[in-house]
Amino acid sequence: MASSQLLPATSSLGDLPRDALVEILLRIPAKDLCRLHAVCPSWRALTSSPLFVGEHKSRHTAPLLAVAYRDQGMANGVDVVDLSGNIVRRIPSIESDIVVEDESGHVFAVIPISHDSITVMRTHLNLICFTRELHPLGLWVLNPATGATLVLPPGHSDELAKEDKIQANYGYGQVESCALGQVSSMGVYKAIRIVSVGDRQMCEVITLDGTNYGRWRGKQSPPALIFAGHGERMRCVVVNGLVHFLMDFYSSIMNSGVITIEPGSIASFNLDTEEWMGTLRGPAPVRTFVQDNEDFCYGHLNLQLSLAELDFSLVTVHNNHYISMGLWFLKDFENAIWEKKYNIPSHVAQLYVYPFLILHDGRILFSHGKGLLKRYDPKTGTYDDALEVTDSRSIGIYTGSLLSL
Hints:
Elements: H1 18-27, H2 30-33, H3 41-48, H4 50-59, E1 64-70, E2 76-82, E3 87-92, E4 98-101, E5 107-111, E6 118-120, E7 124-125, E8 128-132, E9 135-143, E10 148-151, H5 158-161, H6 164-168, E11 174-183, E12 188-197, E13 200-207, E14 217-219, E15 236-239, E16 242-246, H7 249-256, E17 266-270, E18 275-280, H8 284-287, H9 289-292, H10 298-304, E19 305-310, E20 313-320, E21 324-332, E22 337-344, E23 353-358, E24 364-368, E25 372-376, E26 383-388, E27 395-398
Parallel strand pairs: 7-27
Antiparallel strand pairs: 1-2, 1-27, 2-3, 4-5, 6-8, 8-9, 9-10, 11-12, 12-13, 13-14, 15-16, 16-17, 17-18, 19-20, 20-21, 21-22, 23-24, 24-25, 25-26
């Protein structure tokens, strides 16, 4: 795109040629460029225009991260940070203290909001989604560009609300997994959550319409049990409008003594059609790992498997702790064809280590334990600290532009 096309029609840019000034501004990092908004109305109009913002973002591709924070005063919220740990924007929580009432409406407890904690979901969007520890059904969606937070309805869909076991549990079911994704064909966002009702898992979906008045809709249950765990083992991921859940092969073996779900199998939900797409078989070496390795059992494999979204692909992660970590990229969904692109060595393949992001230079970021993001270079084999965070399991990737913050 020609630089002159990015200029407002009535802009006055002084003595510099128009294209030259735009080219200079496009080369300036976004954080510094934001300070130039106050130079003059023409510069502010230019650097705020959607065309300029889009072109600038295409040239400055360093990722931004969304992480939860708690300050010294115990206030909490979400920070947008760069890979150097610089806070680009801090968005405080909008929640108030939690008032607990009995059936007659009498208040018998007030829980300070400082006692609650935020968990940022592992999204890859220009929105940030998070849950709160003291709100078991709650989902919050934050738009860093505007600072607005959308509070999704805390109750169940009409279909689930009628369930006897839901009603017997004060109207609450146990949320096993949840995700937020964008439907590319429509450009809208949808959230999905899997709720346990007794020995069943039920599915609910909601469309984000920019208000607080949407409703959850009950959908068909998953084709078989999916792994629970609210994301700390990274067993749910969204790629191109499909939500992929790792299926719970281990419970089926423990309960029946036979393999009713192949290890590594994945249940995929289409956010566009709001239908399940059957069962996706995992990589063949994962499916046969226990049979091929007599020193391992299904309990080991249960702890080793997770899912990731890397380079816009669905990835099955087989972390054979302290031995190696295989990253299998899905090449063909219909035929369940996987390609092993990385075999990560033993000094990376540790407990509670999950691949998070592949950088443009080929290095891979991993969440490590609780408070670190670490960086592995496949070319040199080096593995070092990248960023200290509160909880590396509570972190998302923000794809919006710094100029919009």
